[in-house]
Design goal:
This protein is of the alpha/beta class. Helix content is about 40%, strand content about 15%. The strands form two sheets. An eleven-stranded mixed beta sheet has the order 1-3-2-6-8-7-12-13-11-9-10, sandwiched between helices. Strands 4-5 form a two-stranded antiparallel ribbon. The radius of gyration is 21 Å and the shape is globular.
Amino acid sequence: MTALCDKTATELCGMLRRKEVTSREITESVFKRMEERESEVNAFITVTRDLAMEQADQADRNLQHGKDLSPLTGIPVAVKDVLCTRGLQTTCGSNILKGYTPPYDATSVERIKASGAVIVGKTNMDEFAMGSSNENSAFGPVRNPANTDYVAGGSSGGSAAAVAAGETILALGSDTGGSIRLPAAYCGITGIKPTYGRVSRYGLVAYASSLDQVGALGRSAADCALLLDVICGYDRRDSTSASMAVPGLFDALKKGMKKGLKIGLPQEYFVEGLDPRVEEKVREGIAVLKDRGADIVDISLPHARYAISAYYLIATAEAGSNLARYDGVKYGVRSDEASPDLIHMYEHARSRGFGDEVKRRIMLGTYVLSAGYYDAYYLKAQEARNLVRRDFERAFEQVDCMITPVSPCLPFPLGEKVDDPLQMYLVDIYTVSLNLAGLPGMSVDCGRVNDLPVGLQIIGRPFDEETVLQVGHTYENATGQTDHAI
């Protein structure tokens, strides 16, 4: 019999309402799995067992009386440690914030709490969300539940691994250049980055403010839709929040994928450098959707080759600016030793607090914004970003959505790319374009190669998460990954 912690959120939601199970039983199942697997997976930085049990008991009381119920009432959710949580440590995977307790909740966390969900802990991550493998955390690497000798993907690796291992049912993540979709692909689950502005960034500790986005991870498109229905929507506290109506995304899945939906295949994503085994699985997934009535159209995104360079210039420039606040005065560790001057104090705090990858990106960002280099690098990168965005706009005149691989390679062994930053950065080559253009994108599991998961990426028009989720749900149903009834 399937353990409760291995069921989807949609299954558990139905079981709770039919009173076949309690939230306490589901939450206990999750913590039992943590006891079994957390020592090897390392998905969490902070575990909140006492808080979770209190919330589970409250959810059971609400369910018993039918009081203000949300579909997430009683469902365990993990929160990436880049989101502020009032009264709970928020570290961003960094020593510089170790022990920091925010006085407020991020909007997405606030909405999760209001829904009656059960928060089981804060998940491990690449330091300040900088990484593609989740090996850059000050709290140790996250390991892939499919094979613990391999990376889980980053930077939301803890959230993805926790869902895949049954250590939570749903999880919040953040995505700056693929940080939800890549670990979802590597761990064999579903993860979605919504359109920029669809989910409030208030309380999300900034890496690159024009690229960062909060999103959802679960075992299915339906699970992700449940979570998005709770966290999406306008927030006056976030100046980049979109004041747009949010459709009922979970209910929209019942319509299914429309017949004759035009799916574009960007030819620039199926070229040399893509592992043939990954391409084979993705093309098998495309064939499944074609059998379900989709029309497959070859398209071109001619400026895709500039995306990775533009992304790493823009992201590091914004990171250098955002992380300047961590100086040992306003934020961050501060030595008890007397410093001879202010500069020495700053240097001491940052050298102790930041890891190597964060220092590398701050240095690069500072360089590209410096006098004499701004026009040559940062301004050119912004021009390239506009070209990438226009490519997508033109392509969406021909198609309703697009499908690509999530990663050019399979999950790789721990330590394989740590000493080669360029090779690590290229792991993001198929995901960063969506952040540059602000588009929604989702990864769904499309099979295994040597027992390692492969992800298929679905890309939608701005604010058309509905189509992205419908395509993902149709694929999952067709391949038997989830129930047809929702």
